[in-house]
Amino acid sequence: MNKIAQYLNEHLLGEVTADDAIRDNFSHDASILSIKPELVIHPRVTNDIRKIARFAWQLAEKGHVLPITMRGSGSDKTGGAIGSGILINTPAHLNKVIFVSTKAKNQFIHLQPGVSLATINEALKATGMLLPTYYSTAGYETIGGAVANNLSGIQSGLHGSTGDWVERLEVVLANGDLIETTRISKGELNKKKGLQTFEGEIYRKVDAIIDDNKQTIDDKIANEATDNTGYPGIAKVKNRDGSFDLTPLLVGSQGTLGLISEIVMRTTFYSTEESIIVATFDNPETARDAADTIVGQQPTILEVIDGQLFDTAHNLGKKYIFSEQYLDRHVGTIMYISFNDISDHTRHKKTKHVLKLLSKVGSTVYTNPEYMIEELQLVCEVESILLQNNSKGESQPPIIDGASVPGDRREEFIVALDELANKHHISLPLHIRWLDDIIYTRPVLKLHEVSDKQKTFKLINDYLDLVIKFGGSMCADACEGRLKAGAAYARLDDDELDIYKQIKDVFDPLGILNTGVKQKSDLKTLVSALDPDYSIAEFAKYSPSN
């Protein structure tokens, strides 16, 4: 690989290395998997990415597959940001805000993929705007990673996921060609289909896939609950008026259909004022019933958090605003509510309604300005204490984070989940994002022990069965990557799988784009990639919540 590194260094503006220590550093993401790349490349311009793709394409044509993985911060929880071939590191140089538009009815921000979400929102705040799908990982998460995973965030229950705010993309195709995606008219589509290029071929074949599989797409993909498994964006590509946009297909594709080099996102105005309520409950069912009622007040954020997480934090010395309330007993259930309506009157009215409701159900409440906003927000980020847990050999990996279960089946699901936890002799405390039904739970595992290695994949399968049984989705807040793909695809109908395979073959006929991600993988392959020294220490300086 040193010769290839030298060759590419001669032709790229960016840096290419086959250094063993650097490759080790990029062999991990936030998942429990580890795969060491052959090369790490830090591109400086889009043309570097094009040359990398063209080089890998030409190698593949000769029978030598060198996969390409596009990487941001490496915060992917499913192994989507690691790969065995070329790893493209975008934050090194492709980390700029290109342009911000503040024009009325045309507010957007033009970005390179390696810029962090925190940097984006700091730039936008000066204009009174922001990207509303804010993430707990914003301190280090890149916009390229957020788009590639169609991430949802703490405000997604109100504002939708990342893909809902993507206006257009610049994408390097597998052969190195450069295209721009946005919604085009039926007439423009016909012109695209007439191109004698790889781009033209993609438009022709994707349009044919949609026409040939319309019934399956309408019945089994378009109408499903939020699910990022496979390429569900195919249902949003073609509108009834014949207009066409490849963007929804590329959002959530985890770099398996193309390499995103620039992104245009729509933005919105934001309020500088926020009203926060933290409520404690001794009875979890009472808390969940109250949450169902509070939804009607349209909060910006509504989270219901298992008290067991705070018990763990207390044992590690952490204190919260309600800690004295639970000095001699276990913490009950904690609710976090936020309103950030621009209208002071509306915000205060909603807050008053919720406080009145909470007083009737016997909860203890904490609000601002009585308490500092930072003290209240700490409650919502209790998982950050997991970074400080130094129990020898133990970790709490995000192997089943981000599923969703419909609200009307939630209580049944929670009862069944208790049974599943008992079956596996583990504890599964819940953190529920109430507005969009996203559920987070992390078991304590010892990944260096054979028994827990086996338990890991058995738990993923059993948990997915449970989620599907109650009408939910395993991959609601992000994608399946490597870790969840096998389990998720085993539960899809053959006709859905066939559509997703056709899409992959259209964009990546030589199999060089993030090979192994969003594809079926056998258990043996996953076990061999399992990292017994799993750690999220790389992100500890940011103290993310989940």
How many strands in all?
A: 18
Looking at the overall shape, the CATH architecture of the domain at 97-269 is 2-Layer Sandwich
- In round numbers, the mean pLDDT is 93
What fold name goes in the CATH topology slot of the domain at 97-269?
Uridine Diphospho-n-acetylenolpyruvylglucosamine Reductase, domain 3
What class would the helix/strand composition place it in?
alpha+beta
Low-confidence parts lasting 5 or more residues at pLDDT below 50? Answer: none
The main pleated sheet reads as: 7 strands, antiparallel
Structure description:
With 546 residues, the protein is of the alpha+beta class. Among the domains are: 2-89, Uridine Diphospho-n-acetylenolpyruvylglucosamine Reductase, domain 2; 97-269, 2-Layer Sandwich (Uridine Diphospho-n-acetylenolpyruvylglucosamine Reductase, domain 3), CATH 3.30.465.10; 275-367, Alpha-Beta Plaits (2-Layer Sandwich), CATH 3.30.70.3450. 35% of the residues lie in helices and 15% in strands. The protein has helices at 2-11, 20-25, 46-61, 117-125, 143-149, 156-159, 186-193, 198-212, 214-221, 247-250, 284-294, 307-315, 344-360, 373-380, 410-424, 450-469, 485-489, 494-507, 523-529, and strands at 15-17, 39-42, 68-71, 86-89, 97-103, 106-111, 129-130, 166-172, 178-181, 259-266, 268-269, 275-281, 301-306, 333-339, 364-367, 403-404, 431-433, 438-440. Helix 8 (198-212) packs antiparallel against helix 18 and helix 15 runs antiparallel to helix 16 (450-469). The protein is globular, with a radius of gyration of 23 Å. 47% of the residues are buried.
